[in-house]
Specification:
Elements (H helix, E strand, L loop, with lengths): L1 E6 L2 E3 L5 E9 L7 E6 L6 E6 L10 E3 L7 E6 L4 E6 L8 E8 L11 E4 L3 E5 L2
Parallel strand pairs: 2-11
Antiparallel strand pairs: 1-3, 3-8, 4-5, 4-9, 5-6, 7-8, 9-10, 9-11
Length: about 130
C-alpha cells in the first residue's frame, strides 16, 4: 500500500509563488511515476505535471500541462519519498485543489484513472 500526503497550499496574490510538497510512505517505489493533478470547483480533475525517476519507457521523463509550462516545476527526492511542485507567476485560474498521485507503472500518462494512489489534496487559492 502507498500513502500520499500533500502540504503547502494556501492563499497567494496573482504573480506570487507557492511550493507544494507530497510525502510518500508505504510501498512507494522510485520507479513509479508521480504526478500532480488539480481540480477547480465544477470542473474535472486535470493533469498538471508528472515525473519519472529515470528515462525508462519514455524518452521524456518530465511532462507539464501547456497551461503551466514555464511557470511550474516538478521535482522529486526518491531517498525521502518526496514530490514537489514549485509554482511561480500564479494566476487566478490556477485556483484549485491540488492532488499528488502515484502510478502503478513507470510510464507517464495524462489520465487520472491510470494513477492508483492519491493524496487528500491541498487547496491553492490565487486572489487579490
Amino acid at each position: 500500500q502507498v500513502q500520499l500526503a500533500e502540504s503547502g497550499g494556501g492563499l497567494v496574490q496573482p504573480g506570487g509563488s507557492l511550493r507544494l510538497s507530497c510525502a510518500g510512505s508505504g510501498r512507494l517505489s522510485s520507479t513509479q511515476v508521480m504526478a500532480w493533478f488539480r481540480q477547480a470547483p465544477g470542473k474535472e480533475r486535470e493533469f498538471v505535471a508528472a515525473i519519472t525517476s529515470a528515462p525508462t519507457f519514455s524518452t521524456i521523463n518530465i511532462k507539464y500541462a501547456d497551461s503551466v509550462k514555464g511557470r511550474f516545476t516538478i521535482s522529486r527526492d526518491n531517498a525521502k519519498k518526496m514530490l514537489y511542485l514549485q509554482m511561480n507567476s500564479l494566476k487566478p485560474e490556477d485556483t484549485a485543489v491540488y492532488y499528488c498521485a502515484a502510478s502503478s507503472s513507470g510510464v507517464i500518462t495524462f489520465q487520472s484513472s491510470t494513477y492508483a494512489y492519491w493524496g487528500q489534496g491541498t487547496q491553492v487559492t490565487v486572489s487579490s
